[in-house]
C-alpha cells in the first residue's frame, strides 16, 4: 500500500482522485462527466469511475464511485457524499473527524486552509504487479483496460471495415443520366406465372428514378439495358455517362462492354467483395423485395405473382419522397418534371373490372365489364 493525501472538500459532490492513483481503482467503468469547479467557466473532465480500497489507522474501508480526473492536482474526499452515507463530519480544534454510529472512522489535520487526511491506498490483489498489457489480456482485450502498445490480437479479432461516407456535393451527378447504377436479382422461387425468375433495375442517380425489367435468364440483362438506353436517351436527348455495376458475368460480357464503348458509356465495376460501392442499387433491391413481400402477403394472390409485385413496388418507390432529393421531392417528380398524381393507385391485388367493348359483346344482354 501507499500513503496518499486527501483533502476534505465540502464543495465537491463526489470523491475525486488524480491519475497517479488511478491504477488502484477497481470495478472501473468509463464515463464522460463534466465537473464544475470554483473558478467560473472552468470544468474538470472525469474519464473513469471505480472503487478505491483504503486504510486509516489500520482500519480497512472502500470509497465507492470515485471519479478519476487527469487534470486534477489533488485527491478530494467529498464531505457531502460522506454525509449522504450516514456519516457525521466534525471540524473543530484544527481537526476533522468522520464519525459513524460505531465510533471514529478517520481523522485529519488542518494544513494551511485545508483539512487533510492521510490514507493508505491498497492495491487490488488481482491487479498487483500486473503490467498494462497483461491486464488488457486478462480482461479479455477489453477497451476498459487499454494498452498503449498496438495489440495484434485486437487487430485480428476486432477490426472492422471503415464505413463508407456520403459523396461530397462536388462529386454528385449534376444532370439526369449522368450516373446510372444497375443490379440483378435472382433466381427467385417460385417462378412467376409467366416463367420469369430474375429482375434487373436501372436507377438514375440524379433523379433516383428506377426502371425494372423481368428476366427469364440472366443473359437477357444486356437486351434490357439496350432497351433502357434507347428509351431514356430519346426522352431526354442526352447520353448516359457512367454505368455503375457489380462484377456479375452479365455485365462483364464482351457484348455488354462493346455496346457501352460504342455509346460512350464508362462502366464502373465494384471492387470485389465491396457491394457498398454500388450501394444505391443494393439498398434499392432490399426495399423492392421488402415492399413486394408485403404486397403479396396483403393480397389474395399467390407467390407466383411476385413479378407484378416488384413492378408495383418500383412504381410506388418512384412516387415516394426520399432524403436523397431536396424539398421532399419524389423521383417521379424530378423525372417527369411535374407533380405526381396518386389518385389512380389502388390496393395491390384488389378486385378490378375491365370494360368490354361493344364489338366484343355477343348480345345486348351480355355483361359490359368483367
From TrEMBL:
Alphabetized Pfam families for the sequence: Pol_BBD
All residue ranges annotated as the Integrase catalytic domain in the record: 169-339
Gene Ontology MF, one: DNA-directed DNA polymerase activity
Keyword annotations of the record: ATP-binding, DNA integration, DNA recombination, DNA-directed DNA polymerase, Endonuclease, Hydrolase, Magnesium, Metal-binding, Nuclease, Nucleotide-binding, Nucleotidyltransferase, Protease, RNA-directed DNA polymerase, Transferase, Viral release from host cell, Virion maturation
InterPro entries: Integrase_cat-core, PolX-like_BBD, Retrotran_Ty1/copia-like, RNaseH-like_sf, RNaseH_sf
Superkingdom of origin organism: Eukaryota
PROSITE patterns: INTEGRASE (PS50994)
Residue ranges the record marks as coiled coil: none
Record bears the keyword S-adenosyl-L-methionine: no
Keyword Protease: yes
Record GO biological process: DNA integration; DNA recombination; proteolysis
Function: The aspartyl protease (PR) mediates the proteolytic cleavages of the Gag and Gag-Pol polyproteins after assembly of the VLP.
PANTHER family (UniProt xref): TRANSPOSASE, PUTATIVE-RELATED, TRANSPOSON TY4-P GAG-POL POLYPROTEIN
Name of the protein in question: Copia protein
Amino acid at each position: 500500500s501507499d500513503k496518499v493525501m486527501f483533502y476534505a472538500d465540502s464543495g465537491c459532490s463526489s470523491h475525486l482522485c488524480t491519475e497517479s492513483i488511478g491504477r488502484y481503482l477497481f470495478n472501473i467503468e468509463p464515463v464522460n462527466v463534466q465537473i464544475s469547479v470554483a473558478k467560473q467557466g472552468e470544468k474538470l473532465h472525469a474519464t473513469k469511475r471505480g472503487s478505491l480500497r483504503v486504510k486509516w489507522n489500520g482500519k480497512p474501508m472502500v470509497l465507492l464511485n470515485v471519479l478519476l480526473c487527469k487534470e486534477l492536482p489533488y485527491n478530494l474526499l467529498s464531505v457531502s457524499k460522506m454525509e449522504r452515507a450516514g456519516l457525521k463530519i466534525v471540524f473543530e480544534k484544527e481537526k476533522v473527524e468522520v464519525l459513524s454510529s460505531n465510533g471514529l472512522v478517520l481523522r485529519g489535520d488542518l494544513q494551511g486552509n485545508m483539512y487533510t487526511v492521510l490514507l493508505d491506498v491498497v492495491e487490488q490483489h488481482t491487479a498487483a504487479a500486473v503490467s498494462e498489457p497483461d491486464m488488457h489480456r486478462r480482461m479479455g482485450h477489453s477497451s476498459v483496460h487499454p494498452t498503449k502498445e498496438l495489440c495484434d490480437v485486437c487487430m485480428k479479432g476486432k477490426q472492422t471495415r471503415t464505413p463508407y461516407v456520403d459523396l461530397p456535393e462536388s462529386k454528385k451527378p449534376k444532370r439526369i443520366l449522368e450516373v446510372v447504377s444497375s443490379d440483378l436479382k435472382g433466381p427467385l422461387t417460385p417462378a412467376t406465372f409467366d416463367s420469369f425468375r430474375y429482375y434487373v433495375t436501372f436507377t438514375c442517380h440524379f433523379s433516383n428514378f428506377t426502371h425494372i425489367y423481368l428476366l427469364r435468364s440472366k443473359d437477357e440483362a444486356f437486351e434490357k439495358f439496350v432497351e433502357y438506353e434507347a428509351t431514356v436517351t430519346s426522352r431526354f436527348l442526352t447520353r448516359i455517362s457512367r454505368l455503375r455495376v457489380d462484377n456479375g458475368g452479365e455485365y462483364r460480357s464482351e457484348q455488354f462492354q462493346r455496346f457501352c464503348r460504342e455509346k460512350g458509356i464508362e462502366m464502373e465495376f465494384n471492387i470485389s467483395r465491396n457491394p457498398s460501392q454500388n450501394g444505391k442499387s443494393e439498398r434499392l433491391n432490399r426495399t423492392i423485395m421488402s415492399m413486394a413481400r408485403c404486397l403479396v402477403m396483403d393480397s389474395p394472390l399467390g407467390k407466383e405473382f411476385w413479378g407484378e409485385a416488384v413492378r408495383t413496388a418500383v412504381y410506388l418507390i418512384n412516387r415516394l419522397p426520399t432524403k436523397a432529393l431536396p424539398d421532399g421531392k419524389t423521383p417521379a417528380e424530378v423525372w417527369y418534371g411535374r407533380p405526381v398524381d396518386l389518385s389512380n393507385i389502388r390496393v395491390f391485388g384488389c378486385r378490378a373490372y375491365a370494360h368490354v367493348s361493344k364489338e366484343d359483346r355477343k348480345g345486348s344482354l351480355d355483361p359490359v365489364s368483367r
